[in-house]
Amino acid sequence: MPKITYVAADAGERTVDVPVGTSVMRGAVSNGVPGIVAQCGGNAQCATCHVYVDPERYGGLPPMSEHEDAMLDTTACPRRETSRLSCQLKADADFEGLTVTTPERQR
Amino acid sequence: MTQRAKGPVVIVGAGIAGQQVALGLREKGFDGAVALVGEEPGAPYERPPLTKAYLRGDIGPGELEPRPAELYGRERIDLVRARAERIDRAGRAVVLDDGRRLPYDRLVLATGARNRPLRAPGSDLEGVFSLRTRREADALREALEEAGSIVVAGAGFIGLEFAASASAYGHKATIVESRARPLGRAVSAHTAAHFTSLHERHGAGFVFGEEVRALHGDRAGRVREAELTDGTRLPADLVLAAVGAAPDTRLAEGAGLPVDDGVAVDARLGTRDPRVLAVGDCAAVAPASGGGPRVRLESVQNALDQAEYAAERLARPDAGEDLPPYERLPWFWSDQYGSSLQIAGLAAGHDRAVLVGDGDEAFSVLLYRNGALAAVESVNRPAEHMAARHLLAAGRGPSPEQAAAPGFSLRAFARAAA
């Protein structure tokens, strides 16, 4: 199971095992990792699971849909080069050791 | 000295609203006893995927559960799996069907809604389904593997999403709707037409202006035909009754609390009994700004926002008497065949619609009531939906004339208004 590290805006961090096929969002929420709201439950409808991906890993992630791209323009904290919606990132073996930072707020 | 409620807080209903009240109380620092009462077995789960990804088999049961069951233990939330029989308001306790009494200092009703039954002879035949719970979705998943011909009674969101998911199994459902178009008063004519043609292109059929009058079965008691009000008989070995839902007000009524198409609450989500609140699908909320009818919504956003408000209230000193009234912009979404509908605001009662966008596949419709922007429907236009949410929440929507001007862009308008 890939290990994913979630770094909170206040610098606290948690590393959890996220099963292959499970989203980075679900990995956080189901382990009680704070900083991700995911109000719509993983449908890319609410932009409250925004994360900043480790820049070195960003390019290796699965590409984003136009829908995700558009939703990222509307996040509560500013979009950056490495922004993704964590509900759209389904973990596979390549996610091992991935670090994502959660923004200060999601809504 | 004022004190926050010390508990215990009892929450009846373990759907998404009830879950969020319980967890929200902890997030907001409430440390009294919390009990979450739900009558369904298993861990608390969320319903939106039941008509979509879960029904198609894209996700498993674990992914229906937004939070692991252990989290409730860690947060000292007592998950009580039982049916609440009645509220003993004088004794401040909820009486369960197994005879137990759960004493409360504050009670939150999050009892949700129940599907309306199909009032047609034969609706008890095998092969006739309803869809609200995980158990019903499991039964439907199995039935979809075997089904030959499918009839859906009702072209609301549940009926349409079910028909779309059934197509993933290779089925072409027939959807029977008493009105002239799908989605009733929830959407504009333009958006309704988009979803009608979307379904038709995927092979589903509509019969508008009719209802399922009776269901006929074989000797084994299995449904075989659906008879419509015009006498037509459609072959059917799987029928979904999706004819709307009604708020579950049984406990409130039994306890003598006012009910008005939902548990009647004030703008702070309180019932007439200061110790009892109601949230989510079951709550009919008085408007924050004075007059007007109560509003009751069945949506995830409404459940979560009201739950968060109730948790905030209960975690505050004096049970949040000083909290401003509940006021959040409603929004909704639906997904059918990969086409995404997002609605900000409330479309019902609109008197003018302005279409923005050129395609039939991606557009927004701005809906006005008495000249003011009331709602925006966006089909495959997520950024416009988010722009609309900001504009509606701030009460700074474009006039119908501005929206109808050539080259109008909702996103540009929102940026300029920010």
From TrEMBL, chain A:
Cited CDD domains: fer2
Protein family (similarity comment): Belongs to the adrenodoxin/putidaredoxin family.
Superkingdom to which the source organism belongs: Bacteria
UniProtKB keywords: 2Fe-2S, Iron, Iron-sulfur, Metal-binding
Keyword set includes Nucleus: no
UniProt xrefs under PROSITE patterns: 2FE2S_FER_2
InterPro entries reported for this sequence: 2Fe-2S_ferredoxin-like_sf, 2Fe-2S_ferredoxin-type, Adrenodoxin-like, Beta-grasp_dom_sf
Cofactors required: [2Fe-2S] cluster
Segments forming domain 2Fe-2S ferredoxin-type: 2-106
Protein name as annotated: 2Fe-2S iron-sulfur cluster-binding protein
TrEMBL record, chain B:
Domain FAD/NAD(P)-binding: residue ranges: 9-307
Annotated SUPFAM superfamilies: FAD/NAD(P)-binding domain, FAD/NAD-linked reductases, dimerisation (C-terminal) domain
Keyword Oxidoreductase set for record: yes
Alphabetical list of Pfam families matching this protein: Pyr_redox_2, Reductase_C
Cofactor annotation: FAD
Origin species: Nocardiopsis endophytica
Gene3D superfamilies: 3.30.390.30, FAD/NAD(P)-binding domain (3.50.50.60)
Matching InterPro entries: FAD-oxidoreductase/Apoptosis, FAD/NAD-bd_sf, FAD/NAD-binding_dom, FAD/NAD-linked_Rdtase_dimer_sf, Reductase_C
Key words, A-Z: FAD, Flavoprotein, Oxidoreductase
Protein name: FAD-dependent oxidoreductase
Domain Reductase C-terminal: 331-413
